[in-house]
Amino acid sequence: MTDSNLALATHELRKSYGSRLALDGLELSVPTGVVYGFLGPNGAGKTTTMRVLTGLIHADGGSIELLGRPFTGRDRQRLFDVGALVETPAFYPYLSGRDNLRALAASGAHVPAPRIDEVLDIVGLRERSGDKVSRYSLGMKQRLGIAGALLNDPKLLLLDEPSNGLDPAGIVAMRETLRHLASIGKTVFISSHLLAEVQQMADVVGIIAAGRLVREGSMKELLASEGIVRVRVQPEEIPAAAATLGRLTSPDRVSASTLGPGWISVQITPDRSSEVNRTLAETGIYASEMSGGNDLEELFLTLTAASSSTDRDGRFATIDRSAGRLPTAEVQS
Amino acid sequence: MRLFVSGLQKLTTRMATLLTFGLLAGLLVMIDLAVATTGGRGGREGGNPLALITFPGAYDLILSFLFGLGGLFAVIYGAAIAGSEWTWGTLKTAVVRGESRSRYMLATFAAIAVVLAVGLFIAFVIGVAAAAVGATIAGVGLAGIDDTAALARLPELFARGWVAITATAALGFAVATLARSQLAGIGVGIAFYFGETFAGIFLPDVVRYLPFHLSSAAVGGGSGFGGPPDAGALTVGTALVLVTVWLIGSLVVAAGFSERAEITG
């Protein structure tokens, strides 16, 4: 069965390197026309996933659907509609950037000659395209790698840590480019450990830990479901404050915070911080401090820290939602 | 065809190409000029160093040098090209574009074979020019340089030598592919070359079927300069057939391994 709304899907994808399980039944669903952020700690299986998706290695089990049709390693021509940058960009160091793209264009799907200039323009390398790649900085190589991935005007773009080596301006430009590609119907799948970057760019997020997908969904929904606002009130006001805030959300989403005496945690999106503050104020309770966090980092750490711990049978333990949290940014005081 | 043309473009601008054929031609020029300027003194007793710059015999000796020492250079060259595809990760970038791995490797090798032919031809022309200059310096004369019979044999000799050299390049290509490494491929190729030469002392009946000895036999049995010892009783025709078997076998191994390998680098 295939789902034509999905640009990429994996079902029960498994891969081992010897006795080490790299992918353990990975289930991905990447909708068409979005930027999908594929997140995971080091060794979680991100690069292995990218390798399997691009036919560099073979999965031990499970299946892949690329652009609505089943994909196996033998069906290489399916990759003609896919652009990929897996791990570090690879080039002939003695050739110029332009000649490297020409060499790359000789493989796989046919690439019209003017397309090389187009992709050089997209990544901002046209002026330096005549220089040997050995003289390129890491960021320039990364840009050239992205240019290579864009050569065949792919419907699906798979990028592994695309902002590696890019300067801030380069990161912004790349983000805009990828957002633009998604806006014209392309699907962009980026593997990254830079959570803030993914948070700014991705429409949909998948979080992988120990070879399994631990959470997947739209960024907005994920953050909405995982946001926390912490307020500090006078200790004697805690019961009343908790009751008030419980009415704002629900009582089971209000709890004592680990930040210290007087702190209450409310599971609510931080953009409602002012609403929390106002609600308390309306009942005569004034917060002395507030902090909010719905950043991806908090969600990521919570999910991956829990999923990385395993029980004796090697099965994944129940997610411990308190694990791995970092202090969150103060948004109001 | 696109891959093949691209492969040629990549090889013609590559330092390894210039170095391989530059070194081969440079050595030949140095030897020719050294022989000429010393007047052939210092050669082996009973030998005739001036033969290297005396036409028409110089043609055969130049080819013998190129296809003798060229075997070592070719195995290194083949290993360098194949190994770099893995070391630099450029095979990976082609594979993720949906390119057939075996087709990519075979097209790359086809480009190597053509570059070997062109490079050896250029080295041969340079060698002949150097021999002619040497002959003039040494006062040997150029009387035999237009010897019709010698010139008529050159295309066939060159073709046989090219097949033999291509087979040794294929060996290096296959070894580096299996090793997935430029340095490992070059190291194993060199070890194989000298190992085979050394083993020839003790196991001549076995070694004559190995690639460098077969290559030597395929170009006429002469060891030339730096090549392994004579290949025993194998005829040129038999040696050529066996060289071709080595060539095809090496390519099958390289393509087959590439097709099945997990590319993780």
Biggest β-sheet description of chain A: 6 strands, mixed
Largest interface: A-B, 34 and 26 residues
- What is the gyration radius of chain A calculated from CA atoms? 23 Å
Which sequence of SSEs, written as H and E, runs from N to C of chain A?
EEEHEEEHHHEHEHEEHEHEEHEH
Which strand order do you get reading across the main beta sheet of chain A? Answer: 6-7-8-3-9-10
In terms of DSSP E residues, the strand content of chain A is 15-25%
Report the principal-axis shape of chain B: globular
In terms of quaternary structure, what is this? Answer: heterodimer
Tally of separate helices of chain B: 10
CATH topology of the largest domain in chain A: Rossmann fold
Count of structural domains of chain B: 1
Instruction: Report how far the terminal alpha carbons of chain B are from each other.
Output: 27 Å
Mean pLDDT of chain A, as a whole number?
83
CATH superfamily heading of the largest domain in chain A? P-loop containing nucleotide triphosphate hydrolases
Number of domains of chain A: 2
The level 1 CATH classification of the largest domain in chain A is Alpha Beta
Question: Tally of extended strands of chain B?
Answer: 0
Class from helix and strand fractions of chain A: alpha/beta
Taking pLDDT < 50 over at least 5 consecutive residues as the criterion, the unreliable ranges of chain B are 222-229
Radius of gyration of chain B: 19 Å
- Gross CATH architecture of the largest domain in chain A: 3-Layer(aba) Sandwich
Produce a short descriptive summary.
The complex is a heterodimer of chains A (333) and B (265). Chain A is of the alpha/beta class.
